[in-house]
């Protein structure tokens, strides 16, 4: 859940507006605000200065944002890696071939290397 809240904060910092950040995150404005509020309670700091509208990030919010961006990037990388793993065929393949087919078999049997 904290990852989603970090995504809310990064969208808010980028959009500088609660409604636009909510649209970007595909949630309602109240969901985004509630997520930011839950993050405040979880971390024990106020990352966002707000009145009737977004006023900016607090110094603590800037620090959270610095940490949030690589965490989100790493998580997206993890998701992509897992997707690739699910799509890839990994294992051993045994091929029986006659000598005349060896020029074709060779490119098929090259190792892709370690990931």
The topology string of helices and strands comes to HHHEEHH
Order of neighbouring strands in the sheet with most strands: 1-2
Overall geometric form: rod-shaped
Biggest pleated-sheet summary? 2 strands, antiparallel
Strand content: 5-15%
Number of helices: 5
User: Helix coverage percent of residues?
Assistant: 55-70%
How many strand elements?
Answer: 2
Protein model, in words:
This protein is mainly alpha-helical and about 120 residues long. It has five helices and two strands. It has helices spanning about 1-15, 20-25, 30-45, 60-85, 100-110; strands at about 50, 55. Strands 1-2 form a two-stranded antiparallel ribbon. Helix 1 (about 1-15) packs across helix 2. The mean pLDDT is about 90.
């Amino acid at each position: 859940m904290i990852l989603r809240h970090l995504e809310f904060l990064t969208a808010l910092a980028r959009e500088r507006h609660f409604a636009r950040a909510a649209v970007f995150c595909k949630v309602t404005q109240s969901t985004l605000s509630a997520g930011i509020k839950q993050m405040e309670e979880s971390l024990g700091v106020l990352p966002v200065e707000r009145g009737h509208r977004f006023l900016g990030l607090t110094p603590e919010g800037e620090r959270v944002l610095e940490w949030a961006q690589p965490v989100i990037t790493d998580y997206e990388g993890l998701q992509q890696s897992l997707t690739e793993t699910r799509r890839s065929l990994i294992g051993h393949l045994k091929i029986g071939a006659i000598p005349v087919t060896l020029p074709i078999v060779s490119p098929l049997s090259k190792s892709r290397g370690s990931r």
